[in-house]
Amino acid sequence: MNAPSIPRALPRITDLVIRRRFLRLVRCAGDLHGRWLWIGARASNGYGVFKYEGRAVGAHRISYALFVDSIPEGVTVNHKSPVCGVAPSILDVRPDHLELMTMAANIAERNRRRASSIASAQRRCVCGSFICQYASVCESCRS
């Protein structure tokens, strides 16, 4: 397994044209948690991507830089749970559902979540809702 690359710094983005282009690729989930689901392009790992300055950047990183602040080099943007007991979604780009984290802390958090989800043996939709074993997405995401 390759070592993860060190995330690049991303300055605060204040350009309104970029903000409008970004928001056209976001859908408010309409669920109780107020998620902003990314409907634009996705990378092979399932994360949303947004073209910025000629390169593909994680949509969650762009959201943080657009609506919160700059991202220092070597720091990741973590998807946090919108409410206790609800799994975070890698497609959720709502700024207050994101937080900065060191790479080591991000990996530890990911491993903790994985262990927890395996232990519970319950399937979840990309938005975090529980789904039955035969469904690929929940009713909200299907529509």
Write up what this structure looks like.
The protein is of the alpha+beta class. The chain has one domain. The chain is 27% helix and 20% strand. It is built from four helices and eight strands, in the order αββββαββαββα. It has a two-stranded antiparallel sheet. A hairpin with a 7-residue loop joins β1 and β2. The chain is globular, with a radius of gyration of 15 Å. The mean pLDDT is 84.
Low-confidence stretches: none
> Shape, please?
globular
Overall radius of gyration: 15 Å
Structural class: alpha+beta
Overall mean pLDDT: 84
Number of helices: 4
Strand order of the largest sheet: 1-2
**Element order: H for helix, E for strand:** HEEEEHEEHEEH
Tell me the domain tally: 1
**What about the largest sheet?**
2 strands, antiparallel
Helical coverage, percent range? 25-40%
Count the E strands.
Answer: 8
In whole angstroms, the N-to-C terminal distance is 37 Å
